[in-house]
Write a structure and sequence with these properties.
Length: 375
């Protein structure tokens, strides 16, 4: 073997080793090997700018870190384990206060933007390994937003950013139990440090398709906009057809044991007795989640029936409210009433059939927000 060949082989070996070390060094783990306690405090929301600069988060070609997140019942999903499967992993962020996310899974909403996304997702539930992560609230009623956003008082959702993990966990369950939405997947709650949202997405309804080695193959800022483009749909189809399974050969570093007794034994993370909100999707105020807007007292009862309704809607409440409105899902007011009693009827026979929101106000604050269905 001549000297040139030998030098070349040494150089190639060095470059290969350097590349290997560089690539494996990109792997990491967000930790949290057990489900957080219900009382674990949720980190403050990072503000990402007035106009939602969506350049943040992982981009195409980046190597993502591992994470473990949990569903309502405490069942975990570990990303690197999922990447070893035979299906390409697609991560999607969402929250109950993200209107676009909600609309995609409302089968009665005919809007074209949401229809394209809904059609693709429903047709490919088994093609990809979909992992949905419930992140920060996109439009919380307390205004604590990750970017410039209006409050979603014009929908049936009235939620604030969670202060403890239990509130996010129950928001997940409330979403899954919603009778108006068809969601054929498991939903996992982002952990109290918001690590999945902050590192992967930084946008309320984003999509990331991952190669088996943990690199980002496809990224979408808005799922609805992305899947409305036939070229993007074709790219995702080709991504699944050309996908090859592999496994990440990486072992996380062992963390040092806490020998001083004050590490993970913080009493603030101890489980609490929390039965969840009364109406996670309806904005009721007695559940200690909607705690930053004026609400009806826990003893106040509001009855709205029949629902679905055809001709007449009966409204009864123990507290006298100042104003009642019916708005459509675009926020347009189509009915306005100043009540003279705590019990009254609303003639809805002339309204188009579909979904609306009935809202009640007290002292200019929305204290009742309930979806109604006309059929």
């Amino acid at each position: 073997m001549d000297q040139t060949s030998q030098v070349g082989r040494v150089l190639m070996s060095f470059l290969f080793s350097s590349f290997f070390l560089f690539s494996t060094a990109q792997y990491g783990d967000f930790g949290l090997e057990i489900q957080p306690a219900d009382s674990a405090s949720v980190d403050d929301i990072i503000y990402y700018g007035d106009y939602m600069d969506m350049s943040g988060g992982y981009n195409v070609g980046d190597t993502v870190s591992n994470f473990t997140a949990y569903d309502f019942h405490g069942n975990p999903v570990e990303l690197y384990d999922e990447l070893a499967g035979i299906k390409p992993v697609i991560l999607v962020s969402g929250s109950v206060s993200c209107i676009r996310f909600r609309n995609v899974f409302d089968p009665y909403l005919p809007a074209q933007e949401t229809y394209s996304a809904r059609e693709f997702i429903y047709a490919n539930t088994e093609t990809y390994n979909w992992i949905f992560v419930y992140g920060v609230e996109a439009h919380p009623t307390d205004g604590n937003c990750p970017s410039n956003c209006p409050q979603t008082i014009n929908t049936d959702t009235a939620v604030v950013q969670p202060s403890v993990y239990a509130e996010r966990r129950w928001a997940v369950q409330g979403w899954l139990d919603s009778p108006e939405h068809d969601f054929p997947f498991t939903m996992y709650a982002d952990n109290p440090d918001n690590a999945v949202y902050n590192n992967f997405f930084q946008r309320p309804f984003g999509l990331i398709a991952l190669n088996c080695d943990g690199t980002v193959g496809i990224r979408a800022d808005w799922v609805t906009n992305h899947l409305a483009d036939p070229d993007n749909v074709q790219e995702l189809v080709e991504f699944s057809l050309n996908y090859g399974a592999c496994a990440i050969d990486w072992t996380p570093e062992e963390e040092e044991e806490d020998n001083d007794g004050d590490g993970d034994d913080d009493d603030s993370d101890e489980p609490v007795d929390y039965d969840g909100p009364d109406n996670a999707l309806e904005g009721q105020g007695s559940n200690e989640v909607v705690n930053s807007i004026e609400t009806l007292s826990p003893s106040t009862e509001v009855q709205i029936y029949p629902n679905p309704a055809r001709d007449v809607l009966q409204v009864e409440t123990e507290s006298m409210l100042d104003r009642w409105m019916i708005v459509d899902l675009q926020g347009r007011s189509i009915f306005d009433l100043t009540p003279t009693s705590r019990s009254f009827k609303v003639d809805v026979s002339a309204l188009h059939r579909g979904h609306y929101i009935l809202m009640g106000q007290k002292d200019q604050a929305v204290v009742v927000s309930q979806r109604i269905i006309l059929h």
